[in-house]
């Protein structure tokens, strides 16, 4: 079942985050993920949103997501993401209608 990874980011060190971002796609494309959205100015329609960026990705299944997120090459670049932004990351299962 398709899963979606949603990251809400609050920038803390833009230079570090930019280093991460520059290397991200070379790693990401190896694991079957699709980037669905990356927006630094989403419109907040309701409630408060104290973040600077939202990223949405899809993966064919949880195994593909965890292969990506636990891969040594991702762990290497993720040091810059962790240094550059505080993150809330959600993994959401896709909807499969019954019947």
UniProtKB/TrEMBL annotation:
It comes from the Bacteria. It holds the Pfam family DUF1330. InterPro entries: Dimeric_a/b-barrel, DUF1330. SUPFAM superfamilies: Dimeric alpha+beta barrel. Residues 2-95 form the DUF1330 domain. This is DUF1330 domain-containing protein.
């Amino acid at each position: 079942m398709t899963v979606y990874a949603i990251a809400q980011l609050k920038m803390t060190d833009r230079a570090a985050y930019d280093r991460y971002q520059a290397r991200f796609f070379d790693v990401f494309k190896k694991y079957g993920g699709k980037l669905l959205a990356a927006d630094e100015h989403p419109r907040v329609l309701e409630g408060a949103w104290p973040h600077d960026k939202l990223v949405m990705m899809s993966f064919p299944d949880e195994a593909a997501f965890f292969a990506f997120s636990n891969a040594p090459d991702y762990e290497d670049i993720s040091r810059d993401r962790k240094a550059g932004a505080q993150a809330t990351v959600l993994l959401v299962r896709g909807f499969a209608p019954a019947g």
